[in-house]
Amino acid sequence: MKAPTLISLGLSAALALSSPLHAAEDPLKVGFVYVSPIGDAGWTYMHDRARKIVDKEFGDRVETTYVESVSEGSDSQRVIRNLSANGHDLIFTTSFGYMNPTLRVARQFPNVRYEHATGYKTAENVGNYQARAYQGRYLAGMAAGAMTETDTIGYVAGFPIPEVLRGINAFTLGVREVNPDASVSVSWINSWHDPAKERESAASLIRQDADVLTMHADSPAVVQAAQDEGVYGIGYNSNMKSYGPDAHLTSVMMHWEPIYQEKIQAVLNDSWEPESIWYGLSEGVVKMAPMHSDIPEAVVERINTHRDALINGDREVFQGPINNQDGEEIVAKGDALKDQQLLEINWYVEGIEGKLPN
Amino acid sequence: MSMDIIENILFATIRTGTPLLLVALGAMISERSGVLNLGQEGMILVGAVCAFIGAYTTDSLLIGVASGLASGALFSLIFAVIAISLVSSQIATGLALTIFGTGLSAFLGVDYVGLSIDGLDEQPIPLLHSIPLIGKAFFAQDLLVYGAFILFASIYYVMSRTRLGLIIRAVGEAPAVAHSMGYRVILVRYATVMFGGAMAGLGGAYLSLAYTPMWTEGMSAGRGWIALALVVFASWRTERVLIGAWLFAFASILHLVLQGFGYDISPNLLAMLPYLATIIALVMMMQRAGTAQLAPRSLGQPYYPQN
Question: Residue span of the signal peptide, if any (chain A) (predicted)?
């Protein structure tokens, strides 16, 4: 929790210093493009929450607008072009599929800055940003490993893409950190948003003895299922405690506001550069919801120690020795996976049950 | 596999099949009278959000279920007026209803995202629920599942044994003849469309009150389209709708269970299983039925009242 405080302190200092310069000018117009409706407690909800925070913090120096439920592809190109044409100075496009549309529009508007979330391409006036959600997954895995009695943990997942596999692997490493006997069963549902299927999948994992559940999907149905069936559940994106007051161990929360603050400030200061940034616990982009009171004090302390180590850079989530599912050593002791390897990860770590679909 | 696992698979199958069964039965009735309503998805969502709002604000699940039913029926009235009275294209109107319903439900539900209610609980029926293997699946469900059983039986009876069923079928096969015999084609079609709307609303209520007691946008996740496909696969026969819904549900549960047992099958292939199983089973049934005309003859065609 230290880092974000420092950032916001620094930020308010910067604000105080720079405000006279911009006070007389027109506000900076910042646009946001969302892939789904806002009110879903998931991905877009957290982006919009961050938008509101920066909108308030920058006051009348910044004016924000957003367009929600913009499908990826040519529709998004039209929306991004519209925002660019009507005077926006900085546009955040918050879904993977907006990458190429953003780049195409950016070529026509060299004076507008663009920031694309979770992509890998940049241009003169296009930067990108990502969150190291896997760091939070690792800490959540530690909580799960400590609380499981059956040594079986269920993971409901959308699609087998690197972002999801990174989360499952990090989670499993966390589980095995505190409980080497425990294993993680993954249930693929081939959907990002189908609450009924998420729930049925959770029920199916519980029938196979899982007593802690987590998920990489959009709705809180898995946490709700955990509550109803009397097992533990771990949320994702936002704090999902309200869906399972007794079940909710913690949630891995995505807070985008430090990134938005930094980028808007950079444009205001005329120091904006097209970079690729990947922020996590250290920058306060990934946070953990308060831990369940059932988790023993010693475990919480251990989780906090690991969290601090990740923040300070004393350890990495994917530091060796790491074995793959077949027990072969992939990362040697003393090594750690590089960012590029993390972006392309396509294998399971040791401790995950079942085969990785191909 | 142990008995216990089979019992659980059956239990989950019936639960998963219930919303499909409700929606598909409603769609079947309106199609038997000659009206193809592609607005199922929109009606489910409107039913789901209204059921949730009703239950949340009054703290009564009964009112929730009633709101789901009523809102589905009212919402389908829009379709009925445009497609039946104003004789516009049923396909276009139905699609518009789905798009409108998706947006309307999101709009109505904005303040209800993230709230939770105590959903419908299972009500095991004494003695019956302890029958081995099938007891849990059929007699330890919540009230809406029992309601779906009763609705199925009633619809089966009405469609195959009663004069009302004959009238609905006559209107769907030959509206002009039905009209000349003195039946009010327009009125019958209004009634079947609204019945379909109420059933879709009930299917939505099942999702937001029993299955996953919460409201999130787009929570029907395509079930309206699956229900429409089921009606076609079931060749508009009530009993086949039931079998189709359960088969589909069974295959989708199997997909989850097989993964858990570590069978090395691609989940994409498994995800196809429900669709594949439904098609194969129903193709086999249709082959046995011979070459009889399957679809209601006037399906999708507007009826212009003659004097």
Answer: 1-23
Q: Burial level of B276, CB count in 10 A (0-12/13-18/19+)?
A: exposed
Nearest to A186 by CA among A227, A165, A213, A157: A157
Query: Do B12 and A204 count as a contact with CB atoms less than 8 A apart?
Result: yes
Distances (CA, A) of B65 to B59, B146, B202, B217, B233: 12, 14, 7, 19, 29
> Residues A340, A131, B212, CA angle at the centre, nearest 5°?
120
Whether the Cβ atoms of residue A93 and residue A263 lie closer than 8 Å to each other: no
The answer to whether the Cβ–Cβ distance between B221 and A195 falls below 8 Å is: yes
Query: For the sheet containing A232-237, what is the strand order?
Result: A286-288, A248-254, A232-237, A212-216, A152-157, A183-188, A352-353
Q: Is residue A358 part of a domain?
A: no
Residues A336 and A213 reside in one and the same domain: yes
A62 and A206 fall within a common domain: no
Q: How much is the CA Rg of chain B, to the nearest whole Å?
A: 20
Q: Tell me how close the Cα of B6 comes to any Cα of chain A, in angstroms.
A: 11
Domains, chain B, with CATH or none:
3-119+126-289 (1.10.3470)
Task: Please tell me the distance from the alpha carbon of residue A50 to that of residue A258, in angstroms, as a whole number.
Answer: 8
How far is Cα of residue B119 from the mean position of the Cα atoms in its chain?
A: 20
Q: What is the ipTM of this complex?
A: 0.71
Euclidean distance between CA atoms A169 and A146, whole angstroms:
17
Residue A308, min C-alpha distance to chain B (Å): 31
Are residue A6 and residue A126 in the same domain, yes or no? Answer: yes
How many angstroms away from the CA of A140 is the closest CA of chain B?
22
Nearest chain B residue to A205, by CA: B260
CB distance B252–A200 less than 8 Å? yes
Token pair of A231 as six digits: 């097992």
| Exposed e or buried b per residue across A271-293, where buried means at least 16 C-beta atoms within 10 angstroms of its C-beta | ebeeeeeebbbbbbbbbbbebbe
- Contact residues for A94 (Cβ-Cβ < 8 A; gap 6+): A32, A33, A34, A35, A43, A44, A47, A117
* One pLDDT digit (tens) per residue for chain A, 358 residues: 344 444 444 444 444 444 444 444 689 999 999 987 787 677 888 999 999 999 999 999 999 999 988 888 778 999 999 999 999 999 999 988 899 999 999 999 999 999 999 888 889 999 999 999 999 999 999 999 999 999 999 999 988 888 899 999 999 999 999 999 999 999 988 887 788 899 999 998 998 899 999 999 878 899 999 999 999 999 998 899 989 999 999 999 999 999 999 999 999 999 999 999 999 999 999 999 999 999 999 999 999 999 999 999 999 999 989 999 999 999 999 899 998 899 889 999 999 988 887 6
Q: What is the pTM of this model?
A: 0.78
Asked if A97 and A14 sit in the same domain, the reply is: yes
Burial class (CB in 10 A: 0-12, 13-18, 19+), A348: buried
CA dist B101 and B41 (Å) reads 8
**Taking a contact as any Cβ pair under 8 Å apart, which residues of chain A between 168 and 227 contact chain B?**
185-191, 193-201, 203-205, 207-208, 218-221, 224-225
Nearest CA in chain A to B255: A189
Nearest by CB: B214 against A201, A243, A354: A243
Helix (H, G, I), strand (E, B) or coil at B220: coil
